Amino acid sequence: MKQTPQILSGGSEVPGRTCLGCTQCCSLLGIVELKKPVFTICKHCAVGKGCKIYEVRPQTCAGFLCAYRTSADLPEYWHPKVCGMVLHREANSGADILSVICSNSSKYRWKQEPYWSDIKRIAADLHIRHGAYVRILRKGQPVLIINPTTFETHPMGNLKGMAALPQWEQPN
User: Which of 14, 15, 17, 21 is most solvent-facing, going by the fewest CB within 10 Å?
Assistant: First the structure.
């Protein structure tokens, strides 16, 4: 039986896992301080290299770590540069949600193996342990919530503006 990857919230960095060469979060997530909307490449991003203003980047950027960076048992194929998806867990907004944020080139990859099997295991485990849900976010597509028991997907509306995607904050 395969072990369920643990998706931790606010976890610390996993040794050896870096952002080196990955800029997925720079193109998928909204950054309020920069007025950068979701699913838009940041003007300060050198694609495939990193941030051109790294030393003075906004606090939201400095404080963000995707789940790949904080969850040691997530397999290497979940590296955002490899899969084209960013996993981000929010446990501070009243609802406990794991977002699978898909790039345009990977908007259906979440349905493919080995990702779909992992997502189902994670959805069931997060729901049992924390009452959490998994949602799939794609540009121009309905937000999908995965039923943690049947693994059916249910459309739950559309993204609107920057606030609709996780706006992460430095934990207190």
Answer: 15
* Confidence (pLDDT) at 21: 87
What does the longest C-alpha to C-alpha distance in the chain come to?
A: 46
- Residue 41: inside a domain: yes
Q: How many domains does the chain have?
A: 1
Q: Is the Cβ–Cβ distance between 164 and 129 less than 8 Å?
A: no
- Find how far residue 133's CA is from the centre of its chain: 13
In the chain, which ranges are continuous DSSP H helix? 24-28, 59-62, 67-70, 80-83, 115-130
- State yes or no: cis peptide before 114, omega within 30 of 0: yes
Q: Which two tokens stand for residue 156?
A: 């739950």
User: pTM of the prediction?
Assistant: 0.87
